[in-house]
Amino acid sequence: TSDPDTIRRADQVVVPGQGAFGEFARGLAGRGLEAALREALASGKPFLGICLGLQVLFDDSEEQGPVTGLGLVPGHVVKFRRPAELPADAPFKIPHMGWNQVRHAGAGTEPLLSGIPDGSYVYFVHSYHVVPADPGVTVLECDYGGRFCAAIRRDNLFACQFHPEKSQRVGLRLLENFVRS
């Protein structure tokens, strides 16, 4: 929705995203959605960010920028970089697109990952990834040219870099767990 009052009345909030960070962040502010999202998060409502909806929660991004994000989760959004140790003739494509394996991170049990085995495959489409200031918020990690944060949890906020809506059974399970939260 582009209506801040609809967000305020919602029982749960989902922030999907596709596109470019700067345009997305400016669009939220320009439509008055930034304040509504902050209020929803502060109210304790279950909150799900997907892909760019994860990235915009952070302090800033290198994409189109630097560009300021919502600053709800301390940290930065950075572009994938070809690993120095990778041979020059080895492929390393950006964007990171397709199926990749995620691993549980952290010591706690994440309710939205209930019924999702460690090592499950999910679908990604992104050129940038988040680097949380507090690694303790990371609940899923993925390896693509090095380990990166694939999902975070902080209080009532869960957000993932991958697309659950494209991740078949695993993604549907995550969405089902969110709806039941």
Note down, in words, how this protein is organized:
- By secondary structure, the protein is an alpha/beta fold.
- The protein has a single domain, classed as Class I glutamine amidotransferase (GATase) domain (Rossmann fold).
- The chain has helices at residues 4-9, 21-30, 33-43, 52-55, 168-179; strands at 13-15, 47-50, 58-61, 67-68, 73-79, 96-104, 121-126, 128-132, 138-143, 147-154, 157-160.
- A hairpin with a 2-residue loop joins β10 and β11.
- The radius of gyration is 16 Å and the shape is globular.
Describe the structure in brief.
This protein is α/β, with parallel strands linked by helices. The protein has a single domain (4-78, 91-179), classed as Class I glutamine amidotransferase (GATase) domain (Rossmann fold). It has five helices and eleven strands, in the order αβααβαβββββββββα.
